[in-house]
Design a protein that fits this description.
The chain is mainly α and 201 residues long. It is built from nine helices and no strands. α4 crosses α5. The protein is elongated, with a radius of gyration of 19 Å.
Length: 201
């Protein structure tokens, strides 16, 4: 009978996410990866193929977690716009209150900036994640428009780009160490953008 692996893959990926977000791809040595995952090099290569393979899977997991989190807010709110605004406020609270939970947009942007010249495959993956997030936002906004939540003249693609840019900016400001009050104010300002597009009944 084949011997079962003694590790839990999701747990390993979450540990890898924390390490890579903190140190980046280039700043994470194999020794640090071994320590973070508590695995020998052979086990890491057997499970993920390479450091690049581990990073790519960790980044994909990171993106999936962010997508599920956003969808959770949209599905649990009375309206799509309300869900987006609640998500923005919660994101600011998470960034200020939990130093051990990395800001998702930051890891994606960091990967794009760090890897654009050295690892085009990873940079391309980050680009695709951002494109997928923007598409998901645009689709949600289109649904809100069809439901009468947003004004008829709303350009949902343009608004999705604007909201995504604001989310990235909010996460970047959180990394600078802004106070919870300042982050909450920024989230409210971003939320106000959505209010400006609400349909007037």
């Amino acid at each position: 009978m084949a011997r079962q692996a003694r590790y839990d893959r999701p747990t390993l990926l979450n540990k890898a996410i924390s390490l890579f977000w903190d140190r980046g791809y280039h700043g994470s040595s194999m020794k640090q990866i071994e320590q973070a995952l508590d695995l020998r090099p052979g086990s890491i290569y057997a499970a993920f193929g390479s450091k690049d393979g581990l990073f790519a899977e960790a980044l994909a997991t990171y993106a999936d977690q962010g997508r599920l989190e956003l969808m959770g807010y949209l599905e649990s709110s009375e309206s799509i716009v309300d869900g987006l605004q609640t998500y923005l406020r919660a994101m600011a609270g998470t960034a200020s209150a939990s130093a051990d939970k990395p800001a998702r947009a930051c890891m994606i942007i960091k990967t794009l900036l760090e890897s654009s010249r050295t690892h085009p495959e990873l940079a391309g993956q980050a680009e695709q994640i951002l494109a997928d997030v923007r598409k998901a936002l645009a689709e949600a906004l289109e649904q809100a428009k069809m439901a009468g939540e947003l004004a008829d003249h709303t350009d949902c693609e343009r608004l999705a780009r604007l909201i995504q840019a604001q989310i990235v900016g909010l996460r970047s400001m959180a990394e600078r160490g802004l106070s919870p009050e300042e982050l909450t104010e920024l989230a409210s300002d971003v939320s106000a953008i959505l209010d400006a597009y609400r349909a007037r009944h």
